[in-house]
Structure formats: structure tokens, C-alpha cells
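Checked the freezer inventory, then went back to the computational side. Two predictions to log before the end of the day. The first one is the construct we discussed on Monday; recording sequence and C-alpha cells without edits.
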Amino acid sequence: LALEMSTTETRPKRETADHMDRGFLGHPKGLGYLAFTEAWERFSFYGMQTLLVLYMVKELLLPGHIEHIAFFEPIQRLYGLKGQPLASAIFGTYTALVYLTPILGGFLADRVLGKRRTVLLGAATMALGHFLMAFEVSFLVALPCLLLGVGLFKGNIAAQVGELYGPED
């Protein structure tokens, strides 16, 4: 009889989350991990948001620095601006795309990678973006890394929080 059973019948059914595990202040234990991870992502985003225009206006877009940024001339021609207006335009584009890229992240998580792998890839991509931000030459590579990282990360970590609770919880 055991030989006739399929492998799916012999494996125990696995739940997506243990809804009875209340190890974090009466909430599922995983909530603490996800909240901590989300807090660091928000620290990354708001820290970048706070410093980005200041960094561009007071350092990066000044003579002696702007020449070192790879692929910057086409961006400057595209906006047709210089100095603080250009920094504000780059910042505005960055901020708008931060709220658009989670569509791609959700699609990849749902169709290709799964939520957990997409969040990990997003965190690694954001870390790469912050590292690249340290070098003038890679500024225009760092921003898309940050945008893609946030897009992969943001919506998928929120979806994982929702899976911690049962339908009636």
C-alpha cells in the first residue's frame, strides 16, 4: 500500500504561516522580523530622500564633480536645467518612480520569484545602490538600483505581513 501512495500524499500539508504562534506581543512571531526589516527599508528611503537634493546641490552638481558622473550629459539635456532646479527634477523623478516600481516587484513576486526571494533581491539591490552612491561616477547607476530595490521590496514585505494572520484574525 505504501508503494502505491504518491509523494504528495506522504508529505504533511504545509501552511504558509503558523497563525497560532503569538510570540511577539500577542501577534505572530514573524511580525517582529518583518516590522524590523520594513523599518530599515524606510530608514533607507527617508535618509536618501532627506540627503539627495542637498548632496546634489552642495557637492555632486558643482564644477569639478559633475564632469565625473557617467552618462550625465544626456540627463542634463533631457531636463534642460542646471544646479538646484536640476537636482529638484532628479529628486522628483526618483520619488515618483519609487511609488511606481512596486508594480514590477509585485509582478515578479507573483509570477517568477515568490515574495521571499523578491524581498531578498530587493534588499540586496538597495544595498548595492547605497554602495554605488558613494562614488560620483556611478550616481546614475545607483539611483536605478535604489528604485528597483524598493520596487522589489516594498509591496512584497507588506503582503508577507498579511499572510501571518488567519482570515478571522
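The second is the one RB wanted added to the comparison set:
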Amino acid sequence: MKTFIYFLIFLFNVAHIFAQANCDIVSNPSLPPSPYRHGSFRFDGKGDFLRSGDLNSLEFSRQTTDSFSISSKFRITKLNGPQYIFGKFYSAGWFVSYNTNVPGYISFHIGDSTRNVFYLGQDSSWHEYRIKFSKSIEKLFMYVDGSLVYTYNNFTYTDLASTSAFSVGNAGLINTYGPGSVNTNTGWFGGEMDYLNITVNSTSAVNYNFNEFAGQVARDSAAYFY
């Protein structure tokens, strides 16, 4: 009996050491925890959001913006009703949405123009989207999963000056904080996002790379910082 008890204690100690080695957050935050797996950031479609301050670089000024690129990988899991996935919009600005302009489409609204990005329908799988604009040739390009799907020629847009926040999970959030600062009652994004990168004149303005560790800690996959 004693031998059996000692064996159980040995197994417990080994399991405890293994759990500590593989589940504790590492002391060096520049290294990923172990075990580490690629993840995503989940939005419940009922009010989950991320919000920045008033980022002027994301207003894509017609005077100073020669080009911009918006890249993101996400999937829609709430396949009903309009959803404003991300953007910087309050009276003026831009946003990427689903099921708002044309039913079933991922759309890009900027200034006074709205263009189709991709017909999603009831597809809940992952897709990579890229929206690219070049002022020198006045063209707007839409890429989905690495393939060019739309080219809009002679494309221009109106001024986008806005004091709104840049947000993910909805659009139209004002640039303040507190219980009364989220004034959007509908249009919440229900789905998951892997990354969101925005460049303006080839300079990075937003670089969100979402990963998760055991569903407990949200991390930046570029630096692994909290």
C-alpha cells in the first residue's frame, strides 16, 4: 500500500511540475507562453468593442493621403442584421460593415461613397480582406483571400474630418470614455478577428494582431505583451 501511495505522490508532483512549466505566464514577457497556439479575438455581437482615441492619421485627409491600405482577417458568426465591424465614423469618416449597404455583402463606406468588398451571404468561415487606395491613379482595389475581386476606377472621396474614436466591434463611438460614451444601440459585430492592419502613406497607423493563451489572456502576437 505504501508503495502505491508513494507512486501516486510521485505522479502528482510530476503533473504539478508539468502544469507549472506549461501553464504559468513566463517571466520574460518578450517570449510567448508555453504551450502557445494561434488564436483570435471574439466579439459577442451584443456590445463587445475596442476603442482608441481620435487618431487623425485614420481620417485619410485628401490633402496629405496619397495611399492607404486596410487589411483584416475575420469571420462573421452572427449572420443576421447590420453589423459595423470597424471604422472611424461619426457624422463623417469611414467604416467596414456587413449586411448594411447591400444585403449579404461586406461593404466599405468612406465619405459619401459606399463600395462592395465581397458577397459573404451566410458564410461564417474565415476570410482575409484588403482594401487599397491610390490617389495618383484614383483607384480603389478590393482583395479577398489574396485575390483581386473589385477595382473601382476614378474613385475619389469627400473630406473625412471627425472627432470620433477609431473602434472595432462597431462604428460611431464618440471620443470620450465612461458609461455614457457608447451611444450605439445596434450594429454590433458578432464574430472573431485575427488581425487588423492599417497603413497610411506606407506608414503603419494600426497594427492589431490578436492571439489568446488558454482563453485567459489577450496578447499582441507581435510582442506578446499584455
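For RB: Residues 2-26, 212-226 have pLDDT under 50 and may be disordered. Residues 2-23 form the longest helix (22 residues). Let me know if you want it refolded.
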